[in-house]
Amino acid sequence: MRVRSYPSILTSMKSNTISAIAIVVLIFAGLFVWSSAGKGGTAASVQGAPGAASTSKSVLTAPEIFYDFGTISMKDGNVSREFKVTNSTGTDITVSTILTSCMCTSAFIVESDGSIKGPFKMPGMGYVPPANENIKAGESRVIRVVYDPNAHGPAGVGRVDRFITLTDTFGGTLQLEIQALVTP
After folding, report:
1. Which of 85, 90, 151, 167 is deepest in the core (most CB within 10 A)?
2. What topology is assigned to 60-183 in CATH?
């Protein structure tokens, strides 16, 4: 039987601890790189015309793309805002997807006949249907955005900033934004 000395055991323990810390740091670094991989994306130049190959900005327009709810209380429940989106081109445009930046936010298309299509939510949090909403030249649609201040529980108080991204068939995007200060 080999008996190890006390200093040799300490050296072995230090080595194992340093190895464990290094592995944990590498895992967190890998998760950080993986989670931010899709955020930057590649932005092509804005062509501004339907049919242009991969644009970064949609040809759809909205008179309002930002709304601040101000201070809202969790006890009062959901809040909503409607954004009008217009196809001001001479060509029909299809909104292929509508995605939100957080599970606490849903988006709906209010059809011209008053019917509702959706909900459209954050990818990765269940099935998100394709929007496939055709907006004819000169027509508009209403995008109803619903924010649930209770979705994150008691930890969800404070300033929130959420995004709703509409992608058209030409690859262009129109981003709507809501903000609120959530109180209990």
Report:
1. 85
2. Immunoglobulin-like (2.60.40)
DSSP for residue 113? T
Task: Compute the chain's Rg from CA coordinates.
Answer: 24
What pLDDT, in 10s, does the model give residues 17-33? 776 676 766 666 555 55
Prediction pTM value: 0.69
Helices H / strands E in the chain, number of each: 1, 10
Is residue 54's pLDDT more than 60? Answer: no
Order of strands, edge to edge, in the sheet holding 140-147? 60-61, 79-87, 140-147, 105-110, 116-120
CA-CA distance, 148 to 8, in Å (whole number)? 58
- Average pLDDT estimate for 11-17: 62
